[in-house]
Amino acid sequence: HDLGRYGGQPMDFPALRDRLKKAWLLSEPYTDSAAADVFTALQPLSPLLDELRETARLRPDAVLDRGPRPLDPPLLAADAVFQLSRALGVRASAELELGRVDEAFADIFALQRLANGLSDHPANLLCLLVAVAMQDQAMGAIADGRHRHVWSDQRLSEFQSMLGELRPLAGFWTALQVERAHIIYLVATQPKITEFGFAWPWWFFHGWAQQNKVGYCRILESEFLSRVSIAPDRILPAPSSALLQTLNTRLKFHSPYEWVARLGLSNLGKILDGLGDTAERLNLTSVACGMERFQLSHGRYPSTLADLVPNLLAAVPTGIVNGQPLRYSTVPQGGSQLYSVGWDGHDDGGAKDDIVLKLPDAAPR
């Protein structure tokens, strides 16, 4: 646990080594290289990580087994896949630090293939969340390589292609449609009373179940699915404070007719906002890879993002929140940044809640 990082930031190996020491996962003697020590600590996992990497290369959906019925969820050991993917991302960053660029690329490629396989028509929301976590690990390792300027044009192009395949908001839409179908299926197939009594608990009577089904579907549609726009991917503004208060009241009110909604939807708003944040970071990372490719050809970063179109980007991506093109600016401390306007709707120049990706200095030619 605690092997990951958030938002595509470079890995802090000294801090990670200290955490591994405290967890008794790393023993003395330590070397002068924190990355080398972390890489050594991961060696017991190497057979599993290598198998995961090879499986992803050959069969990106190999972790899924959809079961005998169309609505059965995949038999996915979510926690195991998630933890192994975190270790794979850390190993990729350690390999970059140690100069093993080819091995690092193979690990990142595996993370992206697995993430995209899980997010393509996800069978439930859990599959999508695991996929997003895996892609976040990949983005962090890609950032490590960009800061070291070790990626070739071909590999940066492959990263861009893979980043574009994972669409968290489209996956969210699909996953909720599937989960709604599960609820409807559950209620519609409720066994009738027989001479042997209830097949379901006595309190799960037909009228109560039907009203819970209706309440669940209404709230799901009006408060969550209605906020998602596909092609282009957007999160529409959240409900006004009055409507949000009404929703919170409805979900907290102990009505017997919204019991299912309280169980299934209470945390969905936070999940949706988190997926929007991830979708924005995928856009930013893809543009950053395009800028790195531009730097390889010209020895400098572009003056504007429009310089990347059409050779390195089909178009400048628009923000998930406001639908406006992503921003590119220098910062007072030196260097530059990519950013998108955050949830407050104001361009704060990369401050406050703007979603920001720092760019490395151009590599010397």
Described by the principal axes of the CA atoms, the overall outline is: globular
* Terminal Cα span: 40 Å
Strand order of the largest sheet: 3-4-5
Quaternary state, please? single chain
Look at the helices and sheets and give the structural class: mainly alpha
Mean pLDDT: 82
Q: What letter string, H or E per element, gives the SSE order?
A: HHHHHHHHHEEHHHEEE
Low-confidence segments, ≥5 residues, pLDDT <50? none
Please outline the major beta sheet. Answer: 3 strands, antiparallel
Work out the helicity level.
40-55%
Backbone CA Rg = 23 Å
Write up what this structure looks like:
The protein is mainly alpha-helical. It has helices spanning 13-22, 34-41, 46-58, 78-97, 101-119, 125-148, 153-165, 168-188, 206-223, 241-252, 259-265, 268-298; strands at 228-229, 234-235, 327-330, 336-340, 355-359. The strands form two sheets. It has a three-stranded antiparallel beta sheet with strand order 3-4-5, with helices on one face. The chain has a two-stranded antiparallel ribbon with strand order 1-2. Strand 3 and strand 4 (336-340) form a beta hairpin. Helix 5 runs antiparallel to helix 6 (125-148) and helix 6 (125-148) runs parallel beside helix 12.
